[in-house]
Amino acid sequence: MSLVIVGSLGLDDISTPAGSVHEALGGSAIYAAVAATHFCTPHIVGVVGKDFPHESLMMLEAQGINLDGLEIREGKTFRWGGVYNNWNRAETTFTDLNVFAEFTPQLNDSCKCCKSLLLANIHPQLQLQVLQQIEKYNHVACDTMNYWIGLCPDELAEVLKKVDLVFMNEDEIKDFTKRKDIFSAARELLKLGPQWIIVKRGEYGAVAIARDEMFFFPAYPVSEVIDPTGAGDVFAGAFMGYLARHPQLCSAVVKDAMRYATVLAALNVQNFSIRGILGTSLNEINKLKDEMLTWTT
Amino acid sequence: MSLVIVGSLGLDDISTPAGSVHEALGGSAIYAAVAATHFCTPHIVGVVGKDFPHESLMMLEAQGINLDGLEIREGKTFRWGGVYNNWNRAETTFTDLNVFAEFTPQLNDSCKCCKSLLLANIHPQLQLQVLQQIEKYNHVACDTMNYWIGLCPDELAEVLKKVDLVFMNEDEIKDFTKRKDIFSAARELLKLGPQWIIVKRGEYGAVAIARDEMFFFPAYPVSEVIDPTGAGDVFAGAFMGYLARHPQLCSAVVKDAMRYATVLAALNVQNFSIRGILGTSLNEINKLKDEMLTWTT
Questions:
Q1: What does DSSP assign to residue A247?
Q2: Are B183 and A221 in contact (CB < 8 Å)?
């Protein structure tokens, strides 16, 4: 029932056509972990500086996140600033890595006893370091981004060889494989070893592709996007949180995980930072998921 | 069991990265009618010039298309030339309306006895002329394009008030309604009167939207696009051809119509002109449609 999430924790300055926030909770591990709390106990492995608000740590723990694997270092927390002029891509205004620059992920004993792992979007070298520390996990997944695809594709390929599931955007999977369509791109990735490639297509939903089956899911329609930051992390976190409860990676489980991931991602973009996914009951999430079922059958 | 299709018949010069064709059969009515032959007897109402190849007319009749409503006029057939540098949009190299410039659609008695009508992509004024000639049809649908949305939105709105189903591309429905998302755009169109708005999203599939239900369909993945010309016409033709067999416009029928339309559109883009949808058996089409079912349930 536990999921280890290795990723960034940060304080974000975000500006969108709907407004702006200053030093809001962000980072891939925070988004993914909050989404996962609806299904399991996520353990965050990451680092923050001494300036990270104590009340935020308490809030995350109150949400059911295990922070035993969180390092609190001398120095400042990772900070990122982004402006959205269109919803598909943030323009980065600043990136201050701060204590995150020297992050070396170390899994403690409680993390080693978990059965599922999400390697959120961090340097593939760090993802490999984590993979060397685990044994006998049920489900291991990685996320990534275009930056690493350009910078260190070989190290990323090494990661892909060692995971069961891969989360990638449509453009990322095309870039990485140099294929023009996502289906042949996914087949290339499957050859490396993963069982499932999860292709995220933004407002067009997502496709789960395995060797001999595939499933399409629409995005949950959102009438007003407020802040798209973290939608991919929330998607992966909810997906892996649900998987943590199911030892077998069968297609029925993957399909339900996709639906939950879709619902949580839609909730996320309807408010700034993690506000959209806090305080929504599983009952409410299930209602939205059941609604999705009626659209595709 | 019969469907009237009012639209253009033409000879196309098409160039794509996969090759080119000269004076190939084209026009919305031809694409739509050939697709519809898999399900019903389509009646084409349109016009060609004396130069239109006699053997092409014989071939269309041999496919099961009723051409009693086709005018053959002194003069040259409508001609269109297009080049695809990317798959989403053709660059028009020439448009010679020829006899199509003076086209005034007249429904003969056999057309008036039909029960379904597809107003393919022609001037909304002509679509209105046809609508004045029919009574007691089961299903009336219209297609359109960005050109008419820009030129005569008010006449198009008049058409929309009188039809049961509307086929539009994602961008077209947003342009016409001045809405940013297809769901609120579709709600605007539904207010005018249609029961179903069929939003085509290219490689991302299509969405059928009614007042209190909606259904998403992925595109059928195509490994190599050869010529996208007519894909929208084929989609509408197959959809309406299937509907012609079903007096009730219930959601089960709409869903199957969407699947057939999706399959035929995918077959169409895999060859030049109408070659991709000629000579495919209904048995083969059903296999592809059944495969689609496994991707979304």
A1: S
A2: yes
Distance from CA of B276 to the nearest CA of A (A): 20
Q: Give residue B203's domain range.
A: 2-9+28-49+62-74+104-292
The pLDDT confidence band at residue B255, using thresholds 50, 70 and 90, is: very high
Cβ–Cβ of B183/A297 closer than 8 Å?
no
In a domain, B173, yes or no: yes
Residue B23 maps to a domain: no
Nearest CA in chain B to A225: B181
Stretch (H or E) spanning A213: none
Task: Kindly report the three-state secondary structure assignment for every residue of chain B.
Answer: CEEEEECCCEEEEEEECCEEEEEEEECHHHHHHHHHCCCCEEEEEEEEECCCCHHHHHHHHHCCCECCCEEEECCCCEEEEEEEEECCEEEEEEEECHHHHHCCCCCCHHHHCCCEEEECCCCHHHHHHHHCCCCCCCEEEEECCHHHHHHCHHHHHHHHCCCCEEEEEHHHHHHHHCCCCHHHHHHHHHHHCCCEEEEECHHHCEEEECCCCEEEECCCCCCCCCCCCCHHHHHHHHHHHHHCCCCCCCHHHHHHHHHHHHHHHHHHCCCCCCHHHCCCCHHHHHHHHHHHHHCCC
Give pTM, 2 decimals: 0.93
User: pLDDT digits over A210-264, tens only?
Assistant: 999 999 999 999 988 999 999 999 999 999 999 999 999 999 999 999 999 999 9
A193: domain CATH number is 3.40.1190.20
Count of domains for chain B = 1
The interface predicted TM-score (ipTM) is 0.89
Task: List A residues 218-257 in contact with B (Cβ-Cβ < 8 A).
Answer: 218, 221, 223
Q: What pLDDT does residue A280 have? A: 92
Both tokens of residue B154?
Answer: 């008010």
Domain assignment present for residue B16? The answer is no
Q: Strand pairing partners for A96?
A: A79
Residues in chain B with CB shorter than 8 Å from the CB of A215 are 295-296
**At A1, which helix (H) or strand (E)?**
none
Q: Within a domain: residue B154?
A: yes
